[in-house]
From TrEMBL:
Organism field: Chitinophaga oryziterrae
Entries under PANTHER family matching the protein: BETA-LACTAMASE-RELATED (PTHR46825:SF8), D-ALANYL-D-ALANINE-CARBOXYPEPTIDASE/ENDOPEPTIDASE AMPH (PTHR46825)
UniProt GO molecular function: hydrolase activity
Source species, domain of life: Bacteria
Signal peptide positions (record): 1-19
Protein name, as recorded: Serine hydrolase
Domain Beta-lactamase-related, chain residue ranges per copy: 147-469
Keyword Calcium: no
Keyword list, A-Z: Hydrolase, Signal
A Pfam family per the record: Beta-lactamase
């Protein structure tokens, strides 16, 4: 009887699986058909309600229009495998190919998708690829294959990839420090990390919490010199935690920075923008919604947090950060400001058309969005420390503070989510106007982390694609 029941269960499961698989394939084939007809709104109709909430139809349609211009019509589709509820495909187009990931937990419904060009392209295999990869281990081979696909894009220049896996560190460098220089980047070259700096600032705040100097639920006005009666919304104050998870409701840029300015015009304003300028702006800032409720990405909030940390510790932010990195993490090459010799180790940055970008030496820590410079070797230390969570301050930054606990949410500075297999990952990406992109991402349960740094801006989605190509093969 038991054997019969088990056999019947297996038959029913097999039929259900076969039906789901058929529904998935039908949806995938229909999406290609609609894509070829330029019916991008028709594709959007497959989206789940949660996906529609996160991505408006207009944004989705514009993205597919741009992609279609690069690929032309899709001629064929090849399955690349499955990962959890996500299936990967290579779409071969008239002009170019794309990697298409389709996530579906409910038959006939698109829960999420991911499109990128980090896939074999016509003629891409012919590009020479300088590297220090020794090609001796399985991890070496995985990195080599993924890097080769990433570097097919003619607008790529240098690529540095760091892996921490089960306590071991691996470093790989590709390309050139500057176009046509023939100089391979090393793990001691500097990249500008852009917004990954926010995780460092949040860690300093977490350190202050563990030292009982502040409480995350403190009203920010407690630490600001002077009176700021307008820093509330209907009597509800902005709290420290709101600054770290982008829910403060405060303006996202200084008063001195009107919309529509060029990057050069913005930099000229920030040359003179300092802590006194920010304190003056704070007298005019008002939350536009109840703090702690609505997420709006806000680099300006982290400048306020930097100012508060200076008040708490009675030291300049740069001195605070340098001391923390050196004494607690043994990181000596992560900094805002360069010496003359250190600046020579900074890679040349490029935009997405291979045009060199000027790196403007910051005159103040409050310039633009918070940013920081680092090397691959230093970032591997940082990555390992975050995976290990031996530091109480670092561990605190990973704790939930806002959002969907079972999906997209915030820690302190860090962004949290689940991958297609239901495994939690914690991450932050960075984009610097001087021609740099970066990604720092780790899976605590898997004891796995990756840092990717490039000196071009061909797209942050390409870094996420590279991350997936690598981490999904490390088991």
């Amino acid at each position: 009887m038991f054997k019969f029941t088990l056999l019947l269960s297996l038959i029913l499961f097999s039929c259900q699986f076969s039906k789901c698989q058929k529904t998935f394939i039908t949806m995938h084939d229909t999406i290609i058909s609609l894509y070829n007809k330029d019916d991008f709104k028709g594709i959007y109709n497959f989206a789940s309600e949660s996906m529609k909430t996160e991505e408006p139809e207009a944004k989705f349609v514009n993205m597919l229009k741009t992609t279609k211009e690069q690929t032309g019509k899709i001629i064929s589709s090849t399955s690349l495998g499955e990962y959890g509820i996500t299936r990967s495909f290579m779409w071969t187009g008239e002009h170019g190919n794309i990697h298409f990931d389709l996530q579906s937990g409910t038959p006939g419904v698109m829960d999420d998708y991911f499109i990128n060009d980090v896939i074999m392209q016509p003629g891409g295999e012919h590009r020479s690829l300088p590297t220090d990869n020794p090609l001796r281990s399985k991890i070496d081979s995985i990195i080599q294959q993924a890097a080769t696909l990433y570097m097919q894009n003619p607008n790529t220049v240098a690529l540095s990839v760091g892996i921490v896996y089960k306590g071991q560190k691996y470093a790989y460098n590709y390309g050139e420090t500057q176009k046509n220089s023939g100089q391979l980047p090393s793990s001691d070259n500097y990249y500008c990390l852009g917004s990954i700096a926010k995780t460092f600032i949040a860690t300093l705040l977490a350190k202050a919490v563990t030292e009982k100097k502040v409480n995350l639920n403190d009203d920010i006005r407690k630490y600001l010199p002077g009176k700021y009666p307008d820093l509330t919304y209907k009597g509800y104050p902005v709290r420290l935690v709101h600054l770290t998870n982008h829910t403060s409701g405060l303006p996202t840029s200084p008063d001195a920075l009107p919309p529509g300015l060029s990057r050069l015009q913005q930099l000229k304003i920030f040359e003179k923008y300092n802590r006194d300028s920010l304190l003056d702006d704070l007298h005019h800032f008002r939350p536009d919604t109840l703090p702690g409720v609505k997420y709006v990405y806000n680099g300006n909030a982290f400048h306020i947090l930097m100012l508060i940390l200076e008040e708490v510790y009675h030291q300049p932010y740069e001195k605070l950060m340098t001391a923390f990195l050196r004494t607690e993490l043994n990181m000596y090459h992560t900094k805002n400001f360069f010496s003359v010799n250190e600046k020579k180790m900074l890679l040349q940055g490029y935009n997405n058309h291979s045009e060199p970008q000027t790196y403007y030496y910051p005159m103040t820590a409050f310039r633009g969005g918070p940013a920081i410079n680092s090397t691959l070797n230093d970032m591997l230390i940082y990555l390992k420390a975050n995976i290990g969570e031996k530091s109480p301050a670092i561990k605190l930054t990973h704790q939930y503070t806002w959002g969907n606990k079972d999906g997209s949410s915030m820690g302190l500075g860090w962004m949290r989510n689940l991958d297609a297999a239901g495994k939690q990952y914690i991450m932050h990406s960075g984009n610097a106007g001087a021609g740099f992109n970066s990604l720092c991402l780790f899976y605590p349960e898997r004891e796995l982390g990756i840092v990717i740094m490039v000196n071009e801006t061909t797209g942050q989605n390409r870094l996420f694609a590279l991350e997936r190509l690598i981490t999904q093969q490390l088991k």
